[in-house]
Amino acid sequence: MSHTAHIPSHRKPRRSASKLALRAGVAGGVLSTIAVAGAAGPANAEPVTETIEMPTLTSGLSSAVAKSADATQQAALGYELQAQEDSARTTAEAAAKKSKDEAERKAEAKAKAEEAAKAKAEERASRSSGRTTLSTLSSSSNGSGSAATVVAFLKAQLGDAYVMGATGPNSWDCSSLVQAAFRQVGVDLPRVSQDQSLAGTQVGTSNLQVGDILYWGSAGSAYHTGVYIGDGKYLDAANPGKGVVIQDLSGYPATGAVRVL
Q: pLDDT, tens digit, for every residue of 169-198?
């Protein structure tokens, strides 16, 4: 006997042939049954159709979509609100600038008005002083008339307005100013230029003296008068643009002159 005959083998025991045959027979029977059942079905049976349902959104995905829509809407509302705020800010800034400009314009206009009033007051004070001097000169003339008094009165009216038909005290036409000046020394002149050009003695323009009445146009139909004040100059109520001014006789030569003093 071998020394290893009593040691059991470590190999797995082989399955018996009978068990293998039995399992094969069972499997074959099952397959045969399935085949027979398929052959026994009706020849014209309709093919089986299968409806496949699409998977629906899960509750988590639906929630995410809803949140995204809410976020989009909130963003749109935010942009609209920002636009409204920007528009309101722009409008407010424009209104503030307009108010500031208007305030500055009013302040400037007020300052100019105050300056003009001050200048007017100073001018009136100067005229008052001139008229006071005129009164003194007139008193010292003893009624005989004085060219200096006439000239002093005329210079006191410098800057007054020219207004056709006006007779003072702050606006004149040419003949009313001449008439008022000579009235200061007791000489009563006609009111209009035509008649003033015939008053007194005709002296022409080559031998003028201070106080002579100058006229433009022919004697008896003159259209303008003024008074010679010396040094080739005369004073008159010139026109609406100039008012009462002193002018150079060479720039606007007179036609003739009359002497009443």
A: 999 999 999 999 999 999 999 999 999 999
pLDDT per position as a tens digit, 14-31: 555 444 444 544 444 544
**Domain containing 251: what range?**
145-259
For residue 49, being part of any structural domain is answered with no
* Widest pairwise Cα distance in the chain: 196
Q: What is the pLDDT of residues 73-132, one digit of tens each?
A: 888 888 888 888 888 888 888 988 888 888 888 888 888 888 887 877 776 666 555 444
- Other CB atoms within a 10 A radius of the CB of residue 146 amount to 20
CATH number, domain at 252? Answer: 3.90.1720.10
User: Does residue 166 sit in the same domain as residue 104?
Assistant: no
217 assigned to some structural domain: yes
Token digits of residue 120: 């007017």
- 135 and 155 share one domain: no
Give yes or no for residue 46 having a pLDDT over 80. Answer: no
- State how many domains the chain has: 2
Strands 171-172 and 244-248: unpaired
